Amino acid sequence: MTMQVDIVLHRSAEFRARWLCRRFGFLAGLACRAGAPRGSYPLIHLNQTAIGYNSAFVKPATVPKSFDDLLAWAEANPKRLGITLPTKGGSGSGFLYSVALNYLVGTCHEQLTNTSVTPEQAEDWASTSECLNPVWDYYRRMFKVAELTNGNADTLNLMNNQEIYIGTVWEDQVMTFLNNKQLPDTIRLTLLDKGEVGTGDSMFIPADAKHVAAAMLFIDMAAGKEFQTFKLEHKVSRSPRADVNGDLIPDDVRLHVLPNDVFPRLRKPGFTIMAGALADALEEKVLNQ
Hints:
Blueprint: E1 2-3, E2 22-23, E3 26-27, E4 43-54, H1 67-76, E5 81-84, H2 90-103, H3 106-112, H4 119-128, H5 133-145, E6 147-149, H6 152-160, E7 166-170, H7 171-179, E8 187-190, E9 196-202, E10 205-206, H8 212-223, H9 225-235, H10 251-254, E11 267-269, H11 272-287
Parallel strand pairs: 5-6, 5-7, 9-11
Antiparallel strand pairs: 1-10, 2-3, 4-7, 4-8, 4-9
């Protein structure tokens, strides 16, 4: 049980409108329901899945631009692409949902992005729908030539050791590894055509919290422009605020993050419930065959 805090709505003009009610397939609070009392939990952090590559080995002319390009590159360079297993890391489940967004069209795409479904309905659809056959076919080919990794950090470690040259990653985690000298300075990021998904994190206050006022002040600070700018400058933690954007990233950091010509243009909203259902179905349809 949570106490819903009216902390975002009074400053909603500072936040991008698309984040105020629905986030990654979930309603953000009671305020988004017709006739309900006000109150919402604030979105504090945005993250972004991406394709990371080592520019020492992957030259600009050969960087994959689309999902088809990525598969072709993997087939031409066996075991040099790392795909995070979707059940082991969010960069993998995000990539899987992005693949589905790319290949599904029409009614199938509508069903994929129907955020009104329950987890049980999503699991049933993912395990039975013929809509997803192009996704399973893509992964069958990919898994024959890609290196499957056991988590987000595992993918980055393989890149650091030069065992793989391209991998599925989180943008902000790449920056953390770079700051800790766990990745070479030649790492670059991109997004594939038609887009890749991102998610984020919110804050809420438990109903039995002893220091509600202090908690509200803390959330207000975390949602404020000063702290959001600090996170972006030092952690490449993307912000839901309209006045905190990629132009504030320092020049020495900009080389290693998603370029302005792909982000936020190619950012797609994640859908946590469906991404999890797809991950489970992938094991059944492809990995366990």
